[in-house]
Amino acid sequence: MINTLYNSDIDFGSEEGPPHFTLTGEIGILAATGNTDATSFKGALRSEHETKHWNNNYSAELLYTESLTEDDDGETTAEVTAQRFFGYVQFDYKLKTPGRRTFMYADYENDRFNGYDYRASFAGGWSRRMWKDEESSFRYSVGPGYAFVAPEDGTETNVNNGFIVRASGEYQYEWNTGALLRQFMSAEVGQDNIKTRSETALSASLFDSLAMKLGITLSYDTQPLEDSEGLNTETTVSIVYRFF
Q1: Non-local CB neighbours of 155 within 8 Å, separated by 6+ positions
Q2: What separation in angstroms does the CA of 148 have from each of 24, 125, 145, 154, 177?
Q3: Which pTM does this prediction carry?
Q4: 236 exposure class (CB count in 10 Å sphere: 0-12, 13-18, 19+)
């Protein structure tokens, strides 16, 4: 079943569930030749650590795209057209009431083409698992935090370091065939900018430790930098492998 494979995205068991640690890796590669010569790579690692009092989630992903272009003299050069790293951690501390928790969250983003050297944020507050049954689950987090931005040299921006309110929610549904739908959404609301992120993923099990995943990621800034798009989209087909 997919829930034993792709369990880095699943909130396991009850508050009294047994401790466990999971690690999954994801890789997607696209190579195009002919009229367009380009290579794209996306890799990710995700982990969940469940203990009696904590439920911790870790994630790191890398996107890289390189295109070959030919100049007027017929010389071919390689040009990087996408390069982004994004990682986050979230620690949920379980309260005595089942499903209710407090959380601490931190993320870091380094995108070569969004005009920033890096962006980071941290937040803390209230987290709750609304329900979890054999088919579906839903949980959310909300709380105050602080965002850091570091524009590239010579880049002007109206977005500054400042306090934010962060909210996120995650819904999952599993069919009896083992296919899994995951929908995650988050928003960071600050005085200068609102940053939102949506992740939609559909996974299907191939073998005991292998699954195929179709993913769509949307990220949006209300105040993008000059010469940068406010909306960015990623569509990937990848293989997910469970290490343990």
Answers
A1: 115, 116, 225, 226
A2: 29, 19, 10, 18, 43
A3: 0.84
A4: buried
Question: E strands, 71-209, where?
Answer: 76-94, 100-111, 116-132, 136-151, 162-174, 180-190, 194-207
Structure confidence at residue 6 (pLDDT):
37
pLDDT tens digits, one per residue of 178-222 = 789 999 999 999 998 999 999 999 999 888 789 999 999 999 999
169 residue type, one letter = G
Domains of the chain, residue spans: 2-242
Give me the half-sphere count of Cα atoms (radius 13 Å) on the Cβ side of residue 185: 5
CB 192 within 8 A of CB 225: no
As given in the structure block, the two tokens for residue 195 are 């940053």
Q: Return the CATH fold of 2-242.
A: Porin (2.40.160)
Q: Which two tokens stand for residue 153?
A: 């040299």
Structure token digits, residue 43: 């890799």
